[in-house]
Amino acid sequence: MAGRNVLIVYAHQSPGSFNAAARHVAVEALQRQGSHVVVSDLYAMDFRASATVQDITDEPRNPEHFCYGDETMWAWQEGRLSDDIKEEQRKVKEAELIIFQFPMYWFSVPAILKGWIDRVLAQGFAFSMEKMYNNGVFKDKKAMLSFTTGAPESMFLPDGINGDMNVTLWPLQNGVLHFCGFQVLAPQIFWAPTFCLPQVRDAMLEGWWARLQGLWEEAPLTFVPSEYFDLSFTGGYRLWPHLKEERGGDAYGLTTGHHLGKPLPPDNQIKAVSLKDQAKEDHAHSKNGQ
Ligand SMILES: Cc1cc2nc3c(=O)[nH]c(=O)nc-3n(C[C@H](O)[C@H](O)[C@H](O)COP(=O)(O)OP(=O)(O)OC[C@H]3O[C@@H](n4cnc5c(N)ncnc54)[C@H](O)[C@@H]3O)c2cc1C
């Protein structure tokens, strides 16, 4: 769709890498659709990864016990955050879609990208206790992870040695993106490009190009709405008891994280399946006595 703003937060050191190629494909495809694409090339920018007192431009309120979360929230409210953070926050505010392009490091993002998350998504700017999850600050924006792995897909299956990729993705997709309100699109995973045949790598990039043509129309991943939880201090932000009871007979948990002690709903963090469709599948599953 024309005229939309996209931010690509890109974390790879080498312009000859597969990540660089994936970034290039995204920029080309989205610009051809008329989108305005901005890239934050974190290594090229020498983006600082550590969250320190340097992130505020004057004296902290409490220098004796510097509390990064509080101090940066106040600094955000008062326009005292460092220029590099302000600039990234401006890009986030303008973007309708953010794509994070990176190689998986230690089941997560490279430190420079974690630093971007820690420093840019400051309290107040990106979340508050009143504005989180589907009531979050960025509920009208989309975000997605696009990343390469060293391991082949088989190693990240539920019976693979690394364990289920859905579990690996939960902290980033739920704990960071959805927590800030983003509608999270299914991740784009490029499995083990280093060990693929050249034609497989070409096919992966062609698949990415094809997906980008319909990206704006994609349904986001399913998370449990905040309204399902008792959002009072005394209620402990837990699932309402009547909902827990209603879900008692389901074959699967609600999401990868909200599994309620049941088997995880298949591919909850990899494919978009609505809670309604999931319930239908669940029903069919129970009916077949599986
Ligand atoms: C600290 C660290 C932690 C890690 N932790 C994990 C982990 O937890 N789990 C895991 O699975 N892996 C892990 N890895 C491995 C890492 O995820 C992979 O090395 C990385 O994802 C590979 O992507 P790349 O872009 O660097 O590939 P590259 O090696 O740069 O590229 C792969 C191949 O693609 C080729 N290529 C480049 N451009 C194109 C193009 N336009 N068309 C076709 N081919 C092209 C390149 O020439 C190369 O042959 C870790 C690595 C490090 C360093």
TrEMBL record:
Region (Disordered): 254-290
EC numbers on record: 1.10.5.1
Single GO MF descriptor: NAD(P)H dehydrogenase (quinone) activity
GO cellular component, one term: cytosol
Keyword annotations from UniProtKB, A to Z: Cytoplasm, FAD, Flavoprotein, Metal-binding, Oxidoreductase, Phosphoprotein, Zinc
Domain Flavodoxin-like fold residue range list: 5-190
Domain of life assignment: Eukaryota
CC cofactor: Zn(2+); FAD
Signal sequence bounds: none
Catalytic activity from the UniProt record: 1-(beta-D-ribofuranosyl)-1,4-dihydronicotinamide + a quinone + H(+) = beta-nicotinamide D-riboside + a quinol
Cell compartment(s), UniProt: Cytoplasm
Description of how the protein assembles with itself and partners: Homodimer.
Family: Belongs to the NAD(P)H dehydrogenase (quinone) family.
Record function comment: The enzyme apparently serves as a quinone reductase in connection with conjugation reactions of hydroquinones involved in detoxification pathways as well as in biosynthetic processes such as the vitamin K-dependent gamma-carboxylation of glutamate residues in prothrombin synthesis.
The protein's name in its UniProt record: Ribosyldihydronicotinamide dehydrogenase [quinone]
Annotated source species: Conger conger (Conger eel)
Native organism taxonomy: Eukaryota, Metazoa, Chordata, Craniata, Vertebrata
